[in-house]
Design goal:
The protein has 15 helices and 7 strands. With 323 residues, it is mainly alpha-helical. The chain has a 3-stranded mixed β-sheet. A hairpin with a 5-residue loop joins strand 6 and strand 7. Helix 3 crosses helix 4, helix 12 crosses helix 13 and helix 14 runs antiparallel to helix 15. The radius of gyration is 27 Å and the shape is elongated. About 13% of the residues have low confidence.
Length: 323
């Protein structure tokens, strides 16, 4: 007996013109930089590789997403990027607020292309999540079965198109029309319920203040949360992260002409911490601290060259450097 057709797809095409003709991608790069684009790309790939045309995601997964991506990305950056993608329409905000899924017209178009090329018959698609107009190109939906989220079957396109075309114009090319016609009271209750059950990152933004904030060139601030610091501690174990963040804050406050734009601040922080790590670090676990191997070597060499009094000099020097 044949199993149910799989939903995930094994590949997804990306337009070669996406960096030339896509205004939304330009906005994302300008606001969040390549780190933000990487987060967006990762979440799109997760959609293709899981359900094929959507990805079940919530703010509770910010930390997990950051950990899986690595590269110095913090959970706060993940949340900020997703919020911005929802704002500019790279992900559909109505479906995310109502159903907790990340999807878009572009993701669904790519999914259809693969379904058609693989000739997958009987693939089920949730009508509640679908953003494309199903009344225009029947050949693209041949063999696709649309169902409601509660698994009630609507019909198979190619056999009963009229059933699926009823009131479909309400969706059309712009999902905002449905957003305006939804029951606002019900949506508000659903949204409030999700806010109350949202994970740590949401709580960071709403109830837990940032640990430190770094001023940007437009005089807004980049907030750093405890989860970001924990992530950097793993990446730069020899560095006192809070001490270095305070140094960054002082440097940015004192050098207004050298402040960073929002999309570059993540690279600025990681470069600063990497240099500190490479130069020996600032934590007492560093071998340059008193009692460490490098400290003892330097102390011995200095004593050999300058006599016993040199031991006190090297101790004073190290205490000044790492106090």
């Amino acid at each position: 007996m044949a199993g149910r057709p799989k939903k995930r797809i094994d590949y997804a095409g990306w337009s070669v013109d996406m960096f030339s003709n896509d205004i939304k991608i330009d906005k994302l790069l300008d606001a969040q930089g390549w780190m933000g684009f990487g987060i967006y790309f990762y979440l799109c790939q997760m959609a293709f590789g899981s359900e094929g045309y959507y990805y079940e995601w919530s703010y509770d997964l910010c930390a997990s997403t950051a950990r899986k991506m690595g590269g110095g990305i913090g959970s706060g950056t993940v949340k900020e990027t997703v919020d911005y993608c929802l704002k500019i329409g790279l992900f559909d905000k109505r479906l995310f607020d109502k159903w907790g899924v990340l999807t878009s017209r572009g993701i669904q178009k790519s999914y259809l292309v693969v379904l058609k090329s693989k000739n997958r018959k009987g693939t089920e698609i949730y009508r509640d999540y679908w953003l494309l107009d199903i009344s225009k190109k029947d050949e693209d939906y041949q063999g696709v079965v649309f169902v409601r989220k509660n698994n009630s079957k609507l019909g198979e396109l190619g056999e009963d198109n009229d059933l699926l075309r009823v009131n479909d114009q309400r969706l059309g090319e712009d999902s905002d029309l449905l957003a305006q016609k939804d029951s606002r009271g019900k949506d508000r209750k659903e949204k409030d319920k999700k806010v109350n059950t949202i994970c740590t990152e949401s709580e960071n933004s709403a109830s837990m203040p940032p640990v430190i904030s770094l001023i940007l060139n437009d005089k807004t601030f980049y907030d750093v949360f405890e989860s970001d610091i924990e992530n950097w501690k793993d990446l730069y174990p020899a560095v006192d992260i809070m001490q270095e963040l305070r140094k960054m804050k002082g440097w940015l406050d004192s050098n207004p002409t050298k402040r960073k734009i929002r999309r570059d601040i993540g690279s600025f922080i990681n470069s600063w911490l990497a240099r500190t790590q490479d130069s020996g670090g600032t934590r007492k676990t560093s071998s340059y601290y008193k009692g460490g191997e490098n400290y003892e070597n330097a102390r011995g060499n200095h004593q050999q060259n300058h006599g016993r009094s040199g031991r006190n000099e090297i101790e004073q020097m190290w205490e000044e450097l790492y106090k």
